Structures are given as structure tokens and as C-alpha cells.
Amino acid sequence: MSAKPIVYIVDDEEAVRTSLATLLDIHGFTTRAYESGKVFLEDVDPAGPGCALVDVKMPGLDGMGLLHKMAEGNIRVPVVMMTGYGEVATAVKAMKAGAVDFLEKPLDEEELLTVLNRHLSHSQIAAQLEEQKVQAHARLAHLTEREREVFNGLAMGKTNKGIALDLGISPRTVEIHRARVMEKLEAHTLSDLIRLALVLGHRHADGS
Amino acid sequence: MTLKFAAERVPDSSQVGELGGANLEERAPSGLTVAEDQATRLESIINAVPDAIITIDEKGIVTFFSAAAERMFQYKAEEVIGRNVKILMPTPYSIEHDGYLDRYLRTGEKRIIGLGRIVVGRRKDGSTFPIELAVGEAVAKGKHIFTGLIRDVSDRQETERRLHEVQDDLIHVSRLSAMGELASALAHELNQPLTAISNYLLAARQLIQRGPEHVERASDIIGKSIDQAMRAGQIIRQLRSFVQKREVERAPAEIGKVVDEASALAFIGLKEKGIHVAIERENALPEVPIDRIQIQQVLINLIRNAVDAMEGRDRRDLTIRISRDEGAVRISIIDTGAGISSDMEGKLFQAFATTKATGMGVGLSISRTIVEAHGGRLWFEPNPDGGTIFHLALPLSDRPVP
Questions:
Q1: How far apart are CA A100 and CA A70, in angstroms?
Q2: What is the ipTM score, two decimals?
Q3: Does B109 touch chain A if contact means CB atoms closer than 8 Å?
Q4: Per-residue pLDDT tens for B135-178?
Q5: Are B330 and B393 in contact (CB under 8 A)?
Q6: Which residues of A touch B198 (CB under 8 A)?
Q7: Which of A11, A20, A22 is the best mutation test for B, with the most CBs of B within 10 A?
Q8: Residue B28 — left, alpha, or beta (φ > 0 → left; ψ -120 to 50 → alpha)?
């Protein structure tokens, strides 16, 4: 089960920060507010689900600079840029630099909630996938060479017999390996196993 | 009016002697006596002088009234001669004039004699006009004769008034253009409290919709929203008082406060530029008689210049120092910018001299005009740490800064 998504608010203006946190708290979001991009970078959970509302104009590290730092640090929290009225050109630049969306200040409530919900759910799915992937990789590490070969075959939808033929072993041996694989990967059914292979982005088994 | 009359009344024998130097009874070729001939010549000379000439005796009685005086005051000579000169002055001068004469004759203390002074004249129809009056004195047979040379300076005053008007307009326009440059920064600045207000109100509305048990919290939040509205109002108030076109008026002002307000306006939109600002001030600074808005205009101009000079520099320190000088308060704006090139040094205060891509180059020229009108001084020197220091000295009294 993944963590509750967090809305990060990054704005040097105390009043904007606090008021936005108040509004989002009331709407049931979990918020964290930061007065600078620097403090945000120190505190953000790089993999956890969330969405950052970032003011484009800030002293020191500005919105654009923050996007670059996040890319460098492999922080995949989606960023929604907050711009002043009529700063569309800046917004376009921000989106080219990796922001997922932009909102004009003063913020429109409905737009704010729509944008947030959209990116939070994307982020949540991405975070879940990421989590599963990490877990799957960890489990995969426990497999022996032979077991991994069997797993590859299964992931490609081959039968025990087919795998046995490929590996030059008896179907009976394949069956024993398969049971071990299922156990180590905590898969109850074949479909669990296949889903796991998908999460891992299983490609190498097809020989390419 | 004839000069025969005047000649009798101007018995300064030395002058007459110079003119003639001969027997006054001798006949000139014209058939006139020498005295008559001289009088005619003197009359033509006097009437050619564009200034009005009036002579009076010790009691202030007019003894001579020139043709220019007739035109200027609209009286005929015969209407004035023999009457007290005070009919040519409006009150209170007319009432005080006899007193001045008495005092002078008694004490010999000169108030106007030998000096020029701008006073007010009064025409026959009662209208008044500015005149420049110079008074000379002669003593003959123990009697004083005073001669007044009078020039109508209405035109000159009108010209000067226009000049001031144009200057005021220019100062105002440059203030507006300074504000124009600040406008987009200002829009951002105002957008912050507006965003906060909107967020707080949305939050409060959400709470109120949820039911009466949330009203107290909603009310707290509305309070915060009001604070932000006040803040927005404050920003606008400062700006309004700055751009309003108004009469120039000087009043004693706390210089620290003047500087604070000016920097607040000048720093709008500058925080992204990463400039480190320090304001240093001595304690117990005296009040300075200034036109607050104009001096703030100068300060804003100097601060924005300093900021521009530091664009793209590694070190961006701006120091504003308020200190006491001899009979003055000095405000120094110290930047660590590029400094002033030697070819700009000489023409820095000239209008339309600029190194900036945008801007008209009138800021410093207007600034100096304003400061000098205050009897103050505006100058610059290189900053020993790199960059430039602009000094602005404002006198504590009406006496100008040396």
C-alpha cells in the first residue's frame, strides 16, 4: 500500500503559501509548504506520490531552475507552475522544461482542484508501479540462474514442455523450478507471475 | 511734463555742470538758452529709457514722472506730480512707505537704496503688477532727492512661472514613466495579496457550506483575507501619492521614513534579482524641509539606476546610508555595479545622455534639478569596493548646502 499523496506548495510569498495550504487542507489534501525551492528539494520524497505547486518567480532558485534541479535529482513529482496573470510565455517555457501544467494567479478553485486531482492520481499510479517494480526486482534477485530462465519462458507464455525443450531439461524439472519461482516471487497464480513480468518491463525473454 | 520743470527740480549742480560747463544764460544756435537746450536733450534721453523714472522729495512727494512711467502706471504726469508716491503702491506698502522714508532720513539705514528689489506697483485702475525697483539718491542744498528706476517684470515673471510649470510637468511625467517601468512588477506585487485573498475566501466559503459548526474557523480565515486586502491597499496608496500631479510643497519630513517609503517603491519586483540590500542610518536624524514626493522620486531613480548597474554582476550589494553632514542630511546610494565610464562621467547629469538600451536619459538631469531646487547637492564618486556611490545632501534649513 503506497503513502498518501502530498501536495507540495513552493512559494516565497508567505500569504500565498499559507492561504493555499489552508484552502487545500479544507479540501482534504495533505499539504506541505516551503518558502524556497531549496528547502523543498531537501524535504521532498523523490518517489512518493504527490504534486508540486511551484511559483515561477522566486528569489534564488526560481521555478524554472527548480525544474532543472528536479530532473537532475531524478525527482519525479509532477510540477504545476503558478504564474502571474498574463505570463503565458513563461508558462509555455515551464512546460517545455518539464512542468505538467500551469495555473494563473489568482487561482481558479475548480481548475486548481481538477489539475491537482488529475496529476495526483497519475502520480499515485506511477508511484504504485514504481513501488511494485522495486519489490519485483528485489524478489527477482532471489532467483537462481535456472529459475530465471524458467521465469522468462513463463513470462512469454510458453508451456512447461516448451521450456523444457528450450532448456534441454525434463518437463518434470521445469515444474519443480516453476514452483520455486512462484514461491520466491510471491505469485499465487500464473497471471500474478505475468503481471509481475509486465511491471518489470519484461522484454529480454523474447530474445531481442 | 516738461524737462524745464524737471531741471528746476533736479538741482544736482555737478551733473548739470558736466552737461553744460558754460554760462547757462548763453544762447545756443537753436535760439534756446543753454539750460533750455540741455533740458531738452536730457528729456529726450530720459524718454528713450524704457524704464520708468520717478523722483520724489524727502516727504515722498513726486517731483518727476517720466513718459515710461506714464505708460506703466497709466497716470498722466500732472496727475501724479505733487502727490505722494504711495498712490503708486498697493497696501501694505503704501501705508508703510512714509515710515520707510522717515526711518531712512533719521537713521541713514539703507533698505532699498543702491539695491534692486522686486516689489509690487499699482496702476491708476487699481491693478497691481510686479516691478523691479532701483533707487538712487542725491543731496542738494541739504535736501534729499530720491530717483526710482522702475522696470515692469510681469513678462519676466510670467516666463519664469511658465518655466517652472514646464519643469513641474517634466518632473511629473518622468515620475509617471518611472511608474510605467514599474507597472509590470507592480502587477505581480498586487497579484500576491489578491491570490491570498481569493484563496482564503474560497476556503471560508467551503467551510460555511459544510455547516454552522465551521463558521468560527471560516471567520478566522476571512480575517486573514481582510489583512491581505489592507496590504494591497497599502501598495496602491503609496503608488497613488507618488504619481499624483500636485503642487510642490515643502514640509519638515523624517528622512528615514522618506527613504523607507521610496525604497519600498523602488524595490518592487526586484527581489528576483537577488540583490542584497542594507539600509544604514544614524540615530536621531533631524527633520529636513523637503517636498517628500520629489525627493522620493530622486531616490527611486538613484536606486533603480544602482540596481540596473549591478545587472549580471557577481556581487550585488546595495547600501543606502543616511548620515549627518554639516548643516545637512546626506543620503548615499552605494552599488557594486560596473561603475561609470570616463566618457560618461562628464555628461552624466545632462539630459538625454544614457547608457541604457531603454530610457530617455532624463532621470539624473531631473534629479539634479529637483535637488538643487531644494538648495541641496547631488554628486557621485567611485565606490572603493567597485561600483559607484551617489550622494544626495539636503540642507536642514533654507540655506543651501555649500
A1: 13
A2: 0.73
A3: no
A4: 888 888 888 889 999 988 877 777 777 767 766 776 777 777 66
A5: yes
A6: 106-107
A7: A22
A8: beta
